[in-house]
Structures are given as C-alpha cells and as structure tokens.
Amino acid sequence: MVPILRSVIFNGSPAASLADLTSDEVRSFTDLKIETLPDLMLLEPDDFDNILGNDSSTFIKRKRLAAIVKYLRSGDANTLMAEIIQGSYGTNTTAAATGAGVSSTGQYVPTAPMKLSPCDIPSFSGDIMDQDTYKTKVEAIVGQTTLKHLLSRRPNSADEIERDEELFNVFKNSFHGGTAYLLIGSTLKDSEEKPVAPSGHRLWQDFLAWCNSGGRKDALISKLKSDIKALVLDGDHINGFDYVNQWITKHNELSDLGAAVPKNTTMSDFVHQIEDDDFKVTKELLEATMLRVNRGTTTLNLQEFHDNVESRQRTLDKAADNDMKVRSRRSNVQRSRKRGCSPASSVESRSSGGYSNSSNNAFKNTNLKLPNAIFKELSESQQKAVIKWRNDLKMGER
C-alpha cells in the first residue's frame, strides 16, 4: 500500500517530497495507521510535533505538513500551499492538488516566504546562561525560512520590509517579560531619538551587541571560567571524551570573547583537574611533559594532551566491553547448567571430581546391589567398609 503522504500529489509532487520527509519519517505516519486522506485531514499541528519531534531540525517540515492539511481541508488558495511549493522549488507555481480524491483547483496564488508566528520562537528570559542556546535555536529556526537573510542584512525590497516587520513582532513576543525586552524601545528610535519603523534585522543586531556588551560580556567570561574550574575528570560524572570536548569548547568560547587563557596555564589546569584513578598513569605522563615544557626542553603540543586522555578512555571502554562479554558468557553457561542438570547430578559430579557420567552412574548402581551370598563371605571389617561406602554413595546422590 502506497503511504498517504506519497499518494497525495501537489503540482506533480507528492506531499512527502514537498515537506522534505525522509523515508523513516513517512513510515512513522504509516506505523500510526494514518493511511487514508480522512486520516491525514484529522491531524493537527501538535500531532506533527508528536510524530516528528518538537526540535529545530523538523521545524519547517512540521510547518509544511500543517499547511498541506489546511489546504486539503478547505481547498482554499489563501492557504500557504504556494509558499510550500515556493520553498521547495523557488519558482512561481500553481497550487493544485490531485489524487487521493482531491480535485485540482487550477488557481494561481501569489508566492511569499515561509512565515513565522510568534509561538515558533522560544521565550528568552535574558538569563546570561541561556543566551547562547537561545541564539543557536533562533538561527536554526529562522535559518530554515526565507527570512534567514534578515538576520544578517537589511531588507532590500518592499516584500522584505514587510517580512522584516513580521520578524520584529516575533522577537518582541519572544523577549516579552525578560530583560532583553528593553531593546524593543531603543530599536524603535534612531540615533537622534526619532521614531523608526519596526525592524527584525535591527532588533536582532541590537540583541547580539547587547549579549556582548560590557557587563554582560564580563559576566559571561566569569561564568565560563567558573565552568572550566568546575570541570573535573572524576570518572563518575564525566568521562575522558566529554572532558576533552567540554574543555576545548569552553576555551574556544573564551577566546571568541577576547579572554583566551595562556596555553601553558590552560594545559597545566587540564592535567591538574584529572582526578580519576584510572587515568593516574596518563596524568603522570602529562605532568612529566609539562615539566619538560617549563624547562624549555620540548614544545607544548595541545593535541598531544587531548589525544592521550582520549586514547586512555578508549582503552578503558574496550576493557569494560570485554568484561561485559565475559560476564555475559559466564552467565549463559551458568543458566545452561541450571537448565541441564538436576541438583542430584550436580552433587554427584562434584563428589566424583567432576568426571561423573552415565557409565559411572551404572557402576555405582551395580555396586550398591551387592548379593547377600558374597556379602556374607566378607570379614566383619570388610562388611563395615562396604556398608560405609554404600551409605556415602547414597548421601552423595541426595
């Protein structure tokens, strides 16, 4: 059966293609038994969040699917169908739906960039700890639309000026209630304090400057240094790979802010903050290297320090993996023994030194039934020995 998102055709292209869905994403709809046109038309925007995940990588896909469903319900040219096709192919085209019981309208509709609504951008409280994450999310979301150019340049046409004002309103809603909201008033005035039209581009540039301004920049530098000081390779909360990655990332951020730490100090701290006993030899090796660097007998190679820690982590991971395999193998053997051996046979095996087999059992059974005529011919001491031996065997079988 052809998936519904491949059978609904718009202007010669399946809905799945217009929404830029992968095969796995199309299969997600089929797995949920969304197999007919009525099934698809029942979906709401929140449903697409649940199916595709509510993150920036699927943002545009979810927006397009919502517009497709809206069009299927109404067949109205005032929907965003033209914007979907424009976003996929970059040409003016007819928004016509055919197949799956939907007739073609044959209507031309004006093309426009994919729009953003205020709820698409997350709220920003102004907390310095959140500003980098916020900037990344905004760039990822807006970067998937034709509004992305407005983040880096001014609008060049009447249409872009209109979109620039829409972007302003999106940011205004995002900043509402937070400390960054103070930028709204200042960005609506020029250098002579005269009113100017709302501009998302200008507001975003003012926001970036504000993030790197005086006190905020100093506060961010202070926080990064504090984070680096608290970064410890202890083996419990962080492993060697994460330790190296976080160390490099945070020092790069410091460098971008113009607060780079001298290399000797950086690597000395890097070695000092290794506290995991599993890295003891590695730490001693790096300490010896630092001594040679300080004496001037060798040059400092930052990559060498990072590689040594990561190499040790790979060795530890491999050893742990092998240990898990051995444990799993032993566990399987023990379970097999429990399933294949009765308690009596286990005791019997141990009492015979581990060499018990069917012939041993037959031997013991034969000797336990010693004929009375032969038994009476034995001396008293021999009879006692046979009785004791027979009793011992019986106890062993229990």
Folded structure, characterized:
The protein is mainly α and 398 residues long. It folds into 4 domains: 4-98, no CATH class; 118-211, no CATH class; 229-316; 357-397. It is 62% helix and 2% strand. The protein is built from 20 helices and 3 strands. The chain has helices at residues 4-7, 15-18, 23-31, 37-41, 45-52, 59-74, 81-89, 131-142, 158-175, 182-187, 200-211, 214-230, 240-256, 263-272, 280-295, 302-340, 343-351, 358-368, 372-377, 380-397, and strands at 9-10, 13-14, 97-98. A 3-stranded antiparallel beta sheet has the order 2-1-3. Strand 1 (9-10) and strand 2 form a beta hairpin. Helix 9 (158-175) crosses helix 11 (200-211), helix 12 (214-230) packs antiparallel against helix 13 (240-256) and helix 14 (263-272) packs antiparallel against helix 15 (280-295). The longest helix has 39 residues, at 302-340. It is flat. The two termini are 64 Å apart.
Task: List the main descriptive attributes of the protein structure presented here.
mainly alpha; 4 domains; 3 strands
Task: Give the SSE layout.
Layout: H1 4-7, E1 9-10, E2 13-14, H2 15-18, H3 23-31, H4 37-41, H5 45-52, H6 59-74, H7 81-89, E3 97-98, H8 131-142, H9 158-175, H10 182-187, H11 200-211, H12 214-230, H13 240-256, H14 263-272, H15 280-295, H16 302-340, H17 343-351, H18 358-368, H19 372-377, H20 380-397
Antiparallel strand pairs: 1-2, 1-3
Helix pairs in contact: 5-6, 9-11, 12-13, 14-15
